[in-house]
Amino acid sequence: MQTSKIILFIIIVGIAIFIYSEFFYKISNQNMLEKDITQIKSGQAVLAVKLYPKENAETIILLHGGPGVPDEMMEIVEVLKQKYQVINFEQRGVGNSICKNCQYSMEEYISDIDAIAKEFNLEKFHIFGHSWGGLYAQIYAEKNPEKIKSLFLVSPGSGTNTLWKKVGEEVMDFNKNSVSSFGWMKMGINSLLGMLGSDKAYGRLFKQVVENYNKGYDGDGLSNEVLNKIKAESISKTGEQIAKYKMLDEFENPNFPVIVTYGDGDIYGESKKEVYDRFKTGEFKIINNSGHFPWKHNPKVFRSILMKFYNL
């Protein structure tokens, strides 16, 4: 009887230790994850920034698309961090990047990159931008060419002001041709509700948009984690400000290399010509068997281009 009590006591203690250790592990792991994120103040915004450090290495800042749709682009990070220090962040008003009373002006977006550069003592850096992030990269580089070491623009938005409206028409046509009449009606309803301020409606809209972009290719849809980070305000207000911003100038003989890639099944139409004209000395690549997400649609070819450009 006594032996049974001892055995029972040992089992209870063992279970308690196991539960405690599991709890402690989860708390410690959560704290580690939180430490990975640096909060950087930029005007009215507090940016959630993730650093992949590499001592004595040049830095590449990644700019996700949308606007208003976060993307860590981990496939890109995993390749680049072999040689470079890499920074990605959720743009103002997106996910964990808080933005109160923001106008979402292009000047504010420019100041966000400046704030990140200041935080990490970066005088010059590379920028990798996808979709809207590719246009964001152009806007920043036009304003601060002396800070740029290179631009890698993947399916970049074609331009600001009236050209942004043209891009919107091209993207709308692409999506309309990718769904049924009923599907197009649902996208229209969600777009309207999003413009009225519904985060969830914009989440539903962009979930369908990404499905359209991936149609015919390998590619993941938007996870629930990403969908929950989509904010209507950042999407609507940023779009308005891009349309108000001045037309971008030609980059005449920039002092840094520029590469622009598009998929052969990408979402843009004639507006792409404006990017070709803007970077007459740039390198342009059309990736076959790819749409708007070449690192997912044709990873072998895209990785080869990426590694060659960054000398990996």
Keywords:
Rossmann fold, 49% helix, globular, single chain, nine-stranded mixed beta sheet, 2 domains, alpha/beta, 16% strand, disordered N terminus, 312 residues
Strand content: 15-25%
- Report the top-level CATH class of the largest domain: Alpha Beta
Radius of gyration equals 22 Å
Q: Between the first and last Cα atoms, what is the distance in angstroms?
A: 69 Å
Based on CA inertia axes, which overall geometry fits? globular
For the sheet with most strands, the description reads: 9 strands, mixed
Write down how many β-strands occur, each being a DSSP E stretch of 2 or more residues: 9
CATH fold name of the largest domain: Rossmann fold
Give the helix/strand class.
alpha/beta
Unreliably modeled segments: 3-35
Task: Look at the structure and name the CATH superfamily of the largest domain.
Answer: Alpha/Beta hydrolase fold, catalytic domain
- Mind telling me which CATH architecture of the largest domain this is? 3-Layer(aba) Sandwich
Average pLDDT confidence is 89
Could you estimate the helical fraction of the residues in percent?
Answer: 40-55%
Order of helices and strands: HEEEHEEHEHEHHHHHEHEHH
Count of spatially separate domains: 2
Number of helices: 12
How would you describe the overall organization of this protein?
This protein has 312 residues and is α/β, with parallel strands linked by helices. It has two domains: 1-38; 43-164 and 236-309, Alpha/Beta hydrolase fold, catalytic domain (Rossmann fold), CATH 3.40.50. 49% of the residues lie in helices and 16% in strands. Strands 1, 2, 3, 4, 5, 6, 7, 8 and 9 form a nine-stranded mixed beta sheet that branches. Helix 5 crosses helix 9. The chain starts with a helix and ends with a helix.
